[in-house]
Amino acid sequence: MHYWRSLRPQHWVKNAFVWAGFLFAHEWSDATLAVQVATAFAAFCLIASAVYVANDWIDRESDRAHPVKRERPIASGRISGAAAVVMCIALGAAAFALAASVGLRLVGILLAYVLLNVAYSLGLKRAVIVDVIAVALGFLLRILAGTIGVGIVPSAWLLMCGLMFTLLLGFGKRRAELTAVKPDVARSVLAGYSADLLDRLITVCASGTLIAYSLYTISPQTIALHGSSDLVYTVPIVTYALFRYLYLLDRQHAAEDPARLMLTDWQLQVAAVIWLAAVIWIIG
Description:
By secondary structure, the chain is an all-alpha fold. The chain has helices spanning 2-6, 20-24, 31-58, 60-63, 81-102, 104-122, 130-145, 156-180, 195-218, 220-226, 235-250, 258-264, 266-283. The chain starts with a helix and ends with a helix.
């Protein structure tokens, strides 16, 4: 059970970004492409878990001072360093083997993800604003894995919306951590943030996400690709989901873990299901 927990399977929901390009590419009838995207999704789940295990080992001392993270298997001493190394190697090897079965472009994207996380662990995570941008780039690599990695040309709107949305989640997490963690045990980068600064950054990112998605739905290229101008009717659903997230974020540290929030808040889940069903109905 401890080994399974260390993989953080609840965070695999983040890898749903891999499917974004396939959803909007209008290639649903291509079974081979669907299998390749599914393989890319599985590869990202494995490589992300390898990174989580590595980061947990690197951060084990600071995690022990955190009210929640101290219960992680590695920080609590339930998993040894040797076992963590073996897990990282096995997960990484399996991820790259899956990526290789799809193509070298996907292998390159996974490698870029690993290098980004190495840079994050070595210093980017201690640089104010850069730390969140690095996390957002990790999500963009997920989108690229499901597009360039399998031969789909990514939409500029998709990349822009994905960037703004993941920046929102990143700054939202920092805002929640700032509230939840005592100053003397907080991660070092939080000392460079203030509640007012994060609130302004969150406002910019939430606005950017909504504007980018709204413009995508009414873009002439989008209407021509899908043969419908009705995607604009999904904007209210996205608006509610964003407002719901901001509401939860306002409730102290309720949004400290966006992945867990998505798995536990039924209103966000309903909004996601309705949005997905509406998109499939409109462009299908």
